[in-house]
Inverse folding.
């Protein structure tokens, strides 16, 4: 998360092409609204390690949008600079005519690193959105990531739209277009690592853990440093979660399992953040909670500024009247962060192909 670990496996550089062949059309058909796949032009123009040009370090494949820094030592921060372009034609495909002048859209880069339980977004342009090219600078701290880091642009709605009979998305946060992703491959440390990087344990060895029927557990006993655990007593599940492939059934199942785990984890982290945020100042107690607020506040309170939204969140979680509505909004907001229909569809399609 923006740096809760500051957003899965060893990505083969042909992942996007594989998605095109196996799942692209099915995913599009599964969405209930107009969706433009791979129409956002995503260009990374420079990579810098600790401020210096990448040079001969790492394994860079610009055609497949892939960079491996596995076994590349002595660096702390990778910086990417580039642009994302959204054409006006794309806007006019996914938004209705009466929204073309002041388009309620948001262009963002989403960074996912499931092995570190990290998901982050950087907003490049907000409503009213105009077609054009937008620059970005994105940093990846080595200590906070491991394995495969995927960076992908998305275009989403920022306001409720007309829902009756329209082919266009109407819900706030609905994704309406994307671009090809860049994949960065990093080393996979064996230890639990910092913050949410999961530690694998036998849950039955700990009195404070849930029973052995649970797959994961988020410990908030040390609220300054939340820790995620996976249950070694489900070896097949753990093996799937550790899978480093990009194609086939196990990686598809892994993506769905991570969606399930992350949904639960983010919901708990957001509730904890709400409780730790001051209703007077909107300031959270711990630094990782600032990242949680950065990720979710816009979707939770789209009509409020950041400070007002943080104060409102803190007030809502303390109100017996407002908390049922808050829980529902948190559920919807967290859900919007994931591509659960796409990941589930990929898994179903993989199963169908296996049967054939």
């Amino acid at each position: 998360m923006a740096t809760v670990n500051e957003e899965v496996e060893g990505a083969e550089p042909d992942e996007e092409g594989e998605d095109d062949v196996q799942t692209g059309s099915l995913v599009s058909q599964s969405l209930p609204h107009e969706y433009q796949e791979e129409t956002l032009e995503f260009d990374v123009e420079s990579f810098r390690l600790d401020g210096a040009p990448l040079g001969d370090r790492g394994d860079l494949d610009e055609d497949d949008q892939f960079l491996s820094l596995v076994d590349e030592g002595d660096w702390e921060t990778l910086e990417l600079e580039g642009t994302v372009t959204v054409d006006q034609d794309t806007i006019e495909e996914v938004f209705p005519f009466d929204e073309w002048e002041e388009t309620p859209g948001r262009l963002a880069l989403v960074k996912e690193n499931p092995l570190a339980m990290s998901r982050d977004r950087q907003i490049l342009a907000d409503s009213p959105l105009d077609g054009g090219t937008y620059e970005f600078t994105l940093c990846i701290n080595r200590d906070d990531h491991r394995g495969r880091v995927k960076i992908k642009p998305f275009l989403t709605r920022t306001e409720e739209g007309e829902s009756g009979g329209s082919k266009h998305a109407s819900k706030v946060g609905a994704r309406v277009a994307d671009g090809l992703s860049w994949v960065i491959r990093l080393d996979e440390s064996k230890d639990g690592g910092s913050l949410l990087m999961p530690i694998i344990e036998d849950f039955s060895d700990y009195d404070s853990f849930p029973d052995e029927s649970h797959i994961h557990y988020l410990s908030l006993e040390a609220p300054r440093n939340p820790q995620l655990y996976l249950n070694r007593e489900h070896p097949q599940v753990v093996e799937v979660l550790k899978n480093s492939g990009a194609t086939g059934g196990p990686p598809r199942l892994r993506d769905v399992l991570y969606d399930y785990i992350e949904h639960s984890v983010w919901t708990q982290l957001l509730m904890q953040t709400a409780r730790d945020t001051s209703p007077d100042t909107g300031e959270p107690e711990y630094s990782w909670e600032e990242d949680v607020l950065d990720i979710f506040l816009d979707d939770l309170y789209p009509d409020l500024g950041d400070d007002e939204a943080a104060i409102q969140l803190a007030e809502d979680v303390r109100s017996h009247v407002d908390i049922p509505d808050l829980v529902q909004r948190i559920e919807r907001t967290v859900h919007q962060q994931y591509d659960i229909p796409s990941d589930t569809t990929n898994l179903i399609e993989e199963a169908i192909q296996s049967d054939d």
